[in-house]
Amino acid sequence: MGNKTEQWSTKLGFILSSTGAAVGLGAIWKFPYMTGMNGGGAFFLVFIAFTIIIGLPILIAEFVIGRGAQKEAVSAYKTLAPRSGWSFIGKWGVAGAFLLLSFYSVVGGWVLLYSLMSIPGMIIKENADYAALFGTITGSPFLTILGLALFLLINVIVISFGIKNGIEKSSKVLMPLLFVFFIILVIRALTFEGAMEGITFFLQPDFSELTASSILYALGQSFFSLAVGISVMVTYSSYLKKDVSLPMSAGMVSIMNIFVSLLAGLAIFPVVFAFGLEPSEGPGLLFIVLPEAFSQMPFGEVFLSLFLLLFLFAVLTSSFSMLEIITSAFTEKKQRSRKKVASIAGVFIFIAGIPAALSSSNLSEFKLFGLTIFDASDFLVSNIMLPGGCLFIALFISFKMDKQLVRNEFFYGNNLPSGMYQLWFQLIRWLVPFTIIIVVLNSFGII
Question: Which residue spans traverse the membrane (predicted)?
């Protein structure tokens, strides 16, 4: 197969970058509010089950495809299944990454604006109304579009530098720091009066709260937070050496992802209940709860600034992976300049993101199927494109890709028992497609 000019320099660099691709808005921003809107503990439990039984096998599958082909997403399927129509999975992934990045960058812009405002101490104030502050920022067309533009500009600059000097270097430093800050925040959140009510809401399952749509949201959330279904991980693993164990790496990424989701819930829900806020607040939950929590701490403004900056980096590591799949798809064959392709992609994503950015202001009345443009984009990606992509990847590995190559990639760099391979392969061949089809059809009321 074709040789890569770039590779990850270390296993740790790959795992932290893959975790960075997964642990961004999915685990920290989206997970708490999705859990809050879908009943708490039961949603969390279903999310964990889907992550382990469905998400993890898909993540291993994407790693196998990427390193097996040693090509980015579109070319990988062409290499592994020449003269067939399977390359549409890579194109589906690039389209999904484009759409996802267009609304993801809007939230990235919010995080960036909050980070910049926190440095001179403009967020935490006496008797501040943090919900109103969030409404002011997201309701300003100028601010949301400025945030979107700046966020994408950072992405274009980093992706222009490539894998080793851009993505890997930043992930190695910033991901561990984020974990440390999260733990500090959790310890503080647990000391608030009324915190136990939030813990109960988050960790005690009440299955009467679960609906067909919340089960679909849990499935979509497990895919969203692992960054699977749009072949991002196919592209990332194509830069990987053969001595790295794919199942072990995927297991580490999944565990770290569940752990960050747990930390996010433990940091957010005690504060929500301690201050009488609504857990079903929606996309603004994090931006309202965090300043409230930090305002109760000594040196709260300093801690808020540091946390927001680390959160911004976590969000960026995820967006890097999405811009990387788009950029590499257009630079692979024609040897175009990375900088030029990343810049052009950035401009198109910016234009595509403007309607989502204006969903809380000028276009707030414009609805698609009863949803704002922002929410409709999120629904389309999380509940249709990601599950669809995962279904196609499972079918490709099961019925099309060379079985010996699949087996070899699974076992490189490890001494796992052969039963582990059989278990993974049966899950990916039968349980994963069956579950995705049933959950999606059920949520749309078809069955």
Answer: 12-29, 41-65, 86-113, 133-161, 173-192, 212-234, 255-277, 297-320, 341-359, 379-399, 427-446
The structural domain count of the chain equals 1
Does 368 map to a domain? Answer: yes
Give backbone dihedrals phi and psi of 371, rounded to 5 degrees, phi first: -115, 150
Residue type, 437: I
> What are the mean pLDDT values of the chain's consecutive 10-residue runs (447 residues total)?
56 73 77 90 95 95 94 88 90 91 93 91 84 91 96 89 64 76 85 92 90 88 87 84 90 90 91 85 83 82 83 82 80 73 93 94 87 90 90 95 95 92 96 91 77
DSSP lists the bridge partners of residue 371 as 368
Residue 54 · residue 390 · CB < 8 Å:
yes
Other C-beta atoms lying within 10 Å of the C-beta of residue 275: 16
User: pLDDT tens digits, residue range 229-285?
Assistant: 988 889 888 888 888 899 999 999 899 889 989 998 998 899 889 888 888 877 888
Q: Which residues contact 280 (CB under 8 A, 6 or more apart)?
A: 33, 36, 37
2 in any annotated domain:
no
Hey, what amino acid is at 57? P
In angstroms, the CA 403 to CA 397 distance is: 8
Partner residues linked to 368 by β-bridges? 371
| pLDDT of res. 160 | 80
1 lies in some domain = no
Reference 55, options 217, 250, 204; nearest CA is 250
- Residue 186, class by beta-carbon neighbours within 10 Å (0-12 exposed, 13-18 middle, 19+ buried)? middle
Q: Is the pTM of this model over 0.85?
A: yes
Q: DSSP class of residue 368?
A: B
Q: Give the phi and the psi of residue 96 in degrees, each rounded to 5.
A: -65, -45
Local structure of 371: helix, strand or coil = strand
Q: pLDDT for 70-102, tens place per residue?
A: 888 888 999 999 988 898 999 999 899 899 999
Identify the CATH number of the domain in which residue 231 sits: 1.10.4160
- Residue range of the domain that includes 253: 11-443
Give the integer Cα–Cα distance in Å for 175 and 311.
9
Could you tell me which of 205, 199, 311, 201 has the C-alpha nearest to residue 266?
A: 199
Is 339 among the domain residues? yes
